[in-house]
Structure formats: structure tokens, C-alpha cells
Amino acid sequence: MTTMPDPHHLPETNRVEHRGYQIRLSQSSLERIAFVARPKQRPSVIMAPDREAVLAKAYGWVDRQLASDKNPK
Q1: Cβ-Cβ contacts under 8 Å for 62 (sequence gap 6 or more)
Q2: Residues 72 and 63 sit within 8 Å (Cβ to Cβ)
Q3: Does the pLDDT of residue 10 top 50, yes or no?
Q4: SS3 64
Q5: What predicted TM-score, i.e. pTM, was given to this entire model?
Q6: More confident residue, 28 or 18
Q7: Are 57 and 50 in contact (CB under 8 A)?
Q8: Secondary structure (DSSP) of 11-60
Q9: What are phi and psi of 38, to 5 degrees?
Q10: Of 49, 55, 57, 59, which residue is 20 to 30 A from 30 by alpha carbon distance?
């Protein structure tokens, strides 16, 4: 019998893609760090206390970048 993985427990990955941006995750002694960039660009650094929070911040940052690209001031 094969068991199905728990959908609420996603495996931790060190690299995530969101809307064309690469998000690389790392952990310092106290916080999680996300390096967010499009391919061949310098990354922006985002920090948060845990993996879920740093991913949420990174996704929000990407969404704001894409929105500002569509509506330049």
C-alpha cells in the first residue's frame, strides 16, 4: 500500500519560482532569508522570522515589482 503525502506538509525547497522571479531561500542563525531576482539580475534580499513569512514577503515584493512595471510613474 502506498501512502499519499500530506498536502498540508509541503517539503522544504531552497528554490522557488514566482511569476518569472527566482526565490532562493536560506537560513541565518535567527531568520530566514530570501534572495529574489529575475534570471541574470542582482537579487533583492528579504528577511523574516520563518519560511512562510519570508515567502509571503517575497511573493508580495514580486507582485509589487510587476505592478510598477505595468504602471510606471
Answers
A1: 18, 19, 21, 23, 36
A2: no
A3: no
A4: helix
A5: 0.77
A6: 18
A7: no
A8: PP-SEEEETTEEEEEEE-SS-EEEEEE-TTSPPEEEEESSHHHHHHHHHH
A9: -80, 160
A10: 59
